Amino acid sequence: MSADRTPDHGASAERTRLAWRRTGLSAAAVALLAARPAFAPHAGVAFWLIAATALTGCAALIALAQRRVAGLGAHPRQPGRQAITAYALITCGFAALGGLLVLL
After folding, report:
1. How many CB atoms are closer than 10 A to CB 32?
2. What is the C-alpha to C-alpha distance for residues 4 and 2, in angstroms, rounded to an integer?
3. Residue spans of beta strands (DSSP E) within the chain
4. Nearest to 60 by CA among 32, 83, 79, 29
């Protein structure tokens, strides 16, 4: 990099912010797909519980993403270790729900 150019630190924060928003939107899509079988005519209580759990997980993921976006906008920026760990655990829960949904 030449001496007259400086790196743009704001662009990396903006990309991270947009990535968190995209991840929240994809979590909403996954939750809606997991809740879809609950609206079938033959759906039982298990399908309703899976749908409720998926939608609750989606709400938690979106809340975490919003919290992380707010942390990126703070000065100084706050580290996101706890939010990232919680996000990973909830995503693993989504994978377990998907496996349970396939088995039913």
Report:
1. 13
2. 6
3. none
4. 83
Cα 94 off chain centre by = 10
The residue type of 40 is: A
CA distance 48 to 65: 26
User: Residue 3 corresponds to which amino acid?
Assistant: A
Tell me the C-alpha distance between 54 and 69, whole Å.
Answer: 22
What is the Cα–Cα distance from 104 to 98, expressed in whole angstroms? 10
Residue type, 62: I
pLDDT along the chain (104 residues), means of 10: 61 80 83 83 85 86 82 71 82 83 78
Phi, psi (5° rounding) for residue 15? Answer: -65, -40
**Exposure class string for 49-64: b at 16+ Cβ within 10 A, else e:** ebbebbbebbebbbeb
Cβ contacts of 27 within 8 Å, gap of 6 or more: 57, 58, 61, 62, 65, 91, 94
